[in-house]
Design a protein that fits this description.
CATH architecture of the largest domain: 2-Layer Sandwich
CATH topology of the largest domain: Zincin-like
Radius of gyration: 19 Å
CATH class of the largest domain: Alpha Beta
Distance between the termini: 51 Å
Mean pLDDT: 89
Low-confidence stretches: none
Strand order of the largest sheet: 1-3-2
Structural class: mainly alpha
Shape: elongated
Order of helices and strands: HEEEHHHHHHH
CATH superfamily of the largest domain: Metalloproteases ("zincins"), catalytic domain
Helix content: 55-70%
Bound molecules: zinc ion
Largest sheet: 3 strands, mixed
Length: 185
């Protein structure tokens, strides 16, 4: 468990070592929490207020894992939202820099994050809805939000990405449930 000021020192260290040419005026800061994400969300980067937010539960994480999260969020500050090619290239570069500074485990966590996004299967929506139907036939008690979280884990996406890419989850869930309930009545 680390304190607010320890978190701030970690942020300063990452900025100085990994992103020495970013935020030269030192206007960015870091905070525990204070962001409107879904419950499992680890962090976010708000360009308007120039604040990196990390979830309070990350205070319990090993330092290297938290540093990797800070690097992830700063990469968003540098290249913008999304986890496409440009973002992943910046992450790889940050991992190399971390390695050069002897932050071996931090670099390892960053690369694991990159690989997770690279390996996210490019699944089309119809396949995802089929999968959701299969899950519901097995477990008709599943709620739409449990399904959303399961898709987050299955595809390595954020909750928001799941909602944007597969907007019909709620509808599919309700359809399968009503079918199932009618059949068993
Ligand atoms: Zn991200």
């Amino acid at each position: 468990m680390i304190s607010k000021s320890q978190l701030e020192s970690e942020f300063l260290l990452v900025r100085e070592k990994i992103f020495p040419r970013w935020d030269k005026d030192k206007v960015w800061s870091i905070l525990f929490g204070n962001f409107t994400g879904s419950p499992g969300e680890e962090g976010c980067c708000v360009t308007e207020s120039k604040v990196v937010h990390v979830a309070p539960f990350t205070a319990e994480w090993p330092r290297e894992k938290r540093q990797a999260l800070i690097i992830h969020e700063i990469c968003h500050a540098v290249v913008g939202p999304g986890h496409a090619k440009k973002f992943l290239e910046r992450m790889r570069k940050a991992a190399e820099t971390a390695e050069r500074h002897g932050l071996h485990n931090t670099a390892k966590h960053v690369l694991e994050d990159v690989v997770m996004y690279e390996q996210t299967p490019k699944t089309n929506a119809a396949e995802v809805y089929d999968l959701v139907q299969d899950w519901l036939i097995e477990r008709p008690d599943l709620t739409a939000s449990q399904i959303e979280n399961a898709l987050v884990r299955t595809y390595g996406l954020t909750n928001e990405q799941v909602r944007v890419r597969y907007p019909r989850i709620l509808q599919v869930t309700e359809d399968v449930k009503s079918l199932y309930l009618n059949k068993n009545r």
